Amino acid sequence: MTRVELDTPHGPARAELHCAEEGRAALLLGHGAGGGVAAPDLVAVTRAATDAGVHVALVEQPYRVAGRKATAPARQLDAAWLAVAEDLGERWFADLPLLFGGRSSGARVACRTAEAGAAAAVLCLAFPLHPPGKPEKSRLGELDAVEPPVLVVQGERDAFGKPEPAHRREVVLVAGDHSLKADVDAVSRAAQEWLTRVLRLLD
Question: Domain KANL3/Tex30 alpha/beta hydrolase-like, which positions (predicted)?
């Protein structure tokens, strides 16, 4: 595992790089609004991805690196993410397809930036479809706008809602809530199976 610091328009970001033996793609994973890259689902997916032959970069947004607890505005998150993706793509993962992903807020960033960052696929862990108790404030448009293949892994009791499957979008429901802590093995299995299929598409 290697840690690197990366410049962005909104201050330095950090990435924790986990390399597969023979990486055929690279998956960038972002954290949730109030948590970091040590979240159990992110750790489980990192292991699953490297086992499947995919390098992983766990990306810490600049506000986290700076020690701030309040999340940055969406446009800052997106700009920092794209800067990190460009840097990693040039310096560490040259000539490899980039996959975007993350949990909760990080999943939203991955969806919003997929087109601009030329992501080959998007992996969403606990996508927050709407604020708890406010289904009318839907963020489904962010998911619907993603063109490449998408996997959403969602807790069956997630108070942030559950997206429906759609064209090129798979949804896997696992036990538990928004934290995805109840069955991390199921999260890992879903991610590994999907990544294996995505790699076949990319070959």
Answer: 24-185
